Amino acid sequence: MEIGPNHRFKDVSYIESPNQSGPFAPELPDTIVIHYTAGASTESAIRTLCDRKRKVSAHLVVGRDGAVTQLLPFNIVGWHAGRSAWGERTSLNRYSIGIEIDNAGQLSERDGCYESWFGRTYPAEEVLHGTHRNHSEASYWHRYADEQLEVVEAICAALIQRYGIQYILGHEEIAPSRKIDPGPAFPLDSMRTRLYGSPLA
Ligand SMILES: [Zn+2]
Questions:
Q1: Stretch 133-152: mean pLDDT, rounded?
Q2: Spacing, Cα 80 to ligand 1 middle (Å)
Q3: Cα(179) to centroid of ligand 1, in Å?
Q4: Could you give the CA distance from residue 99 to residue 65 in angstroms, rounded to a whole number?
Q5: Which band of pLDDT confidence, cut at 50, 70 and 90, is reported for residue 119?
Q6: Helix-then-strand count for the chain, H and E
Q7: pLDDT tier at 161, thresholds 50, 70, 90
Q8: 100 C-alpha to ligand 1 centroid (Å)
Q9: What spacing in Å lies between the alpha carbon of 92 and ligand 1's midpoint?
């Protein structure tokens, strides 16, 4: 994954979202925030993230097949983190690049079927039974595709190299009272271990 002088990945489709603030302050961004879309398709996620009325955006969207779409250059502040805090920092949009991954999120089990909040059912092999880091009991989660996990790790490695990213965080870690993405199906701790040598954010 190669990043050009215009702060965009080369060979990646680009659709610019109008939902953006100005450039980052000097020395920033130094953080990546990982999200899932909790939606029905990559196309609908991109539509939402480019809709002025919705007032949300992200720098990148990763489809189920691993295809990447960039919506903002990496030097521009996006609107993905919302009310959030990490250490002494608040409003993490000012510090971070947002990556949205196409995934249905938490699923509910009924008679051996697993259903998303928008009513689609998923086969057992696409479902993980696991405990969220912010919860005490296990529940059901849509698995990420291997292609998605591979490309997200490659994206993070490229952003670390280009921008000196120091923190890779889940939305669930910076807004634990209101967000549960990317959830236990995303191997955040093992990815941080591979990239930084430690599972800790
Ligand atoms: Zn999120």
A1: 97
A2: 6
A3: 7
A4: 15
A5: very high
A6: 4, 15
A7: very high
A8: 7
A9: 12
| Chain position carrying tokens 């092999």 | 125
Q: Which residues contact 7 (CB under 8 A, 6 or more apart)?
A: 73, 74, 75, 76
pLDDT at 113: 92
The domain segmentation of the chain, as residue ranges, is 13-103+144-196
Tell me the CA–centroid distance for residue 99 and ligand 1, in Å: 9
Number of residues written out for the chain: 201
Q: How far is the CA of 81 from the centre of ligand 1 (A)?
A: 6
Q: What are phi and psi of 36, to 5 degrees?
A: -110, 155
Q: 172 C-alpha vs ligand 1 centroid, how far in Å?
A: 7
Each residue of 105-117: pLDDT tens digit? 999 998 889 999 9
The residues with which 142 forms a beta bridge, in sequence order, are 127
Residue holding tokens 């691993």?
Answer: 66
Q: Which residues surround ligand 1, an ion (CB under 5 A)?
A: 35, 171, 181
> What is the Å distance from ligand 1's center to 196 Cα?
23
* CATH T-level topology, domain 13-103+144-196: Lysozyme-like (3.40.80)
Residue 47 pLDDT level (bands cut at 50, 70, 90) = very high
Residue identified by tokens 């990148």 is 60
